[in-house]
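Case study: Aminopeptidase N.
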Amino acid sequence: MPLTSPHRPAHAHRPPATGPARARRRRTASALLASAVGVCLVAASAPAEPLGIGDPLFPHLGNPGYDVQAYDIALTYPGANDRPLDAVTTIDARITADLDRINLDFAHGTVRSVEVDGEPAAFTGAGEDLVITPDDDLDRGESVRVTVRHTSDPRPGNREGGWVRTADGLAMANQADAAHLVFPGNDHPSDKAMFTFRITVPDGYTAVANGLPAAVDRTRATTTWTYRTRNPMATELAQVSIGRSTVLHRTGPHDLPLRDVVPTEQRTALEPWLAKTPAQIAWMEERVGRYPFATYGLLLAEASTGFALETQTLSLFERDLFTDPALPAWYVESIMVHELAHQWFGDSVTPRTWSDLWLNEGHATWYEALYAEERGGRSLEARMRAAYESSDGWRAAGGPPAAPEPPDPGRKISIFRPGVYGGAALVLYALRQEIGQAAFDRLEREWVSRHRDGNASTADFVKLASEVAGRDLSGFLHPWLYAAETPPMPGHPDWRSADRSADTPPGPDTRELRHGHLPGPHGHRPDPGGE
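Here is what the predicted structure looks like once written out:
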């Protein structure tokens, strides 16, 4: 990443900080007496290197030694989406291990300066990390504030994700590991935090972000929009919309404030679709309990992405999804429900590692399929049988649902394979067959209640399922989640995988496509024809 100040500032010392958390140890006496140049040489003796928390799929993603409590991200949009935004990212974190450096994930912008607790700090780049060396070491248990002044570049780089350039501005798509292409942070879903966004735009533009509006400050030529989350959020779920947009307001169940962001000229045509959201929320609440956040809405972007994305409280969709006459209403609504279901499964209850992705996509696909059956007459059993026929092929190509293969080189979003969509929904169907409808429904409600606003793993799910069922289900679920071949389906002994029932190699099953969206990055479109 471009760096404009690779050296330690000349003032190598600072007065001791005050407050109960400021019990820092100093560096050695020799370092304290050294000149600024000498300190630079000491720092240089241990080269900066990228770190990570050892995620099975993204080992260099995230950083050890601290827990982010809050982000404050200020962005200034220049009025064109092919120019970098000026930005200031402030991170409040709790130190969890003694540190002499802080690594942040950041890979697509120019860092202009860094401060640690208000004092300038040295910084350099290492891989996709910004490595910061404060004057004083950081002790476990203390709090720290890191302020990074940088640019945020919406121009395409050599990586997928980050900013999405729309017809009139910008939006974000940060899965799977692309938030650090937009702002520095601890870019792993296991480190959720509160967010504040302050977005300054020229007159004529509207800015919307995750959470609830907190302030609107206008000057002669610009407006600054401030939004704050009321619940912690993973970095990959951050969303900022900048464009010549209209924000439409309505209320959902129990007076939930809803807001949709749409191209101004399309607001009338899109309104019938947006008006369906309150009933869809009520439908989900009947099955899994109260909506977990303080607001919800749809961001309909004038962009060609090939996917929809469950950014927290403000799901991203292509506008064309709602205006394409070839797509039947049941299909469009089921995709709306897919992203809505993610607000419970993935956003409120967030995976502990990226290998737990099936917990997100499997559940979203499950409720999408249930909705398509109830509202569109699309048989759930037929869809599951088609998925079963393809399941062995999916496992061979991308791994079993809870142990997906690493992403293809240069394509981080390739972890979004069919096995974590249709294959994972098949696991839930098998579980319901095994423990019965009533126990399965209790499990779903208890899962989102017990782990609300937190992180959970596959092991947590197996443990809770066993608790709800009143018996150990690990022997049943382990092959469904981890085996190379799909186990027999309870209640359907006649079901066969195409891999085992024919000599021809498995391939895409057209019946699966007709019964729902094609599993792929964040949800691809199907062939909506057929049955």
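For the exam, be able to explain this: The chain has 13 helices and 21 strands.
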